[in-house]
Amino acid sequence: MRCADGSKATRFWNLKVTDRLTHGRRMMSLVSAQSVNKVYRNGEVEVAAVKSADFEIEPGSFVSFVGPSGSGKSTLLNLIGCLDRPTSGDLRVVDTDVAALDRKTAAAFRAQHIGFIFQDFNLIPVLTAAENVEYPLLMVQNWPVARRRKRVGEMLEAVDIMAQADKYPDQLSGGQKQRVAVARALATRAKLILADEPTANLDHTTAYRIIDLMKRMRDEFGSTFIFSTHDPKIMEAAEMIFTLEDGKVGPAERSESHG
Ligand SMILES: Nc1ncnc2c1ncn2[C@@H]1O[C@H](COP(=O)(O)OP(=O)(O)OP(=O)(O)O)[C@@H](O)[C@H]1O
Ligand SMILES: [Mg+2]
Predict the structure, then answer these.
(1) Is the CB of 40 under 6 A from ligand 1?
(2) Cα–ligand 1 centroid distance for 119 (angstroms)
(3) DSSP letters along 157-210, please?
(4) Each residue of 203-257: pLDDT tens digit?
């Protein structure tokens, strides 16, 4: 274990052995959840969407949360992606206590580290497909125009949607919108990509193409991919699976095809 300075090292070695082990594991993790709960409150009604979740996800992972509708998959991805905050518990993402971030800091953190593929795409309706993909490169990364255009072209090509580049979201099919959302999330080559059922609207061939693209990004750039899915194709491609049932996260299991 490397400690940045002597005083940190001393503090570390003063911890109990069990705490040292946990601490060591957490230092290596890209995402670390301990007793994370999320309760939605709508007036009198409370829904416990995530219950006491404990898990660790290492950098460069290709993992998926799998579970029936309503089991808490989107809620969990939204928490990891800092779109929402846990009601209680400890959630660290890229070495940051994300539960403690205020809205503005969370937005900046997200922009710097995270690409998000939303279950309902969240494309900007007044921008074309190409402009949607360009948006984070312009507004967040502030890249010059030539560099932006080049990356947008590469991404549209990669998800096979170039022919629809100038169409607006309401002129696209569900699968085409999903591919634009994938291209937008991958365009910045973020350290962490969260993908909420990213192949739900795609045919077999296109789904495999998108999964291949993501695997290549992981291999080439070391990006970490966290999915939620019902799709056996993603379950097969994922190296690790967490099963979710009624808000409870099961232990990490190696996917059969990577056994
Ligand atoms: N904003 C909200 N307010 C109240 N309850 C919510 C809210 N969002 C989600 N829930 C509830 O939390 C639970 C988990 O929902 P979530 O969307 O995380 O499930 P999911 O596993 O993603 O389901 P699906 O596979 O259908 O997308 C559900 O009971 C849902 O009704
Ligand atoms: Mg969902």
Answers:
(1) yes
(2) 12
(3) HHTT-GGGTT--GGGS-HHHHHHHHHHHHHHT--SEEEEESTTTT--HHHHHHH
(4) 999 999 999 999 999 999 999 999 999 899 999 999 999 999 999 999 999 877 7
The atom number, within ligand 1, closest to the CA of 71 reads: 21
Q: Which residue's entry shows tokens 């990509």?
A: 193
pLDDT tens, 26-61?
A: 558 999 999 999 999 999 999 999 999 999 999 999
Main-chain phi, psi angles of 51, to 5 degrees? -120, 110
Domains annotated on the chain, with CATH: 59-85+101-258 (3.40.50.300)
Ligand nearest to the CA of 76: 1
Residue-wise pLDDT for 236-248, tens only, equals 999 999 999 999 9
Contacts 24+ apart (CB under 8 A), 158-165: 158/183, 158/186, 158/213, 159/183, 159/209, 159/210, 159/213, 160/206, 160/209, 161/129, 164/129, 165/128, 165/129, 165/130
Neighbours of ion ligand 2 (CB under 5 A): 73-74, 119
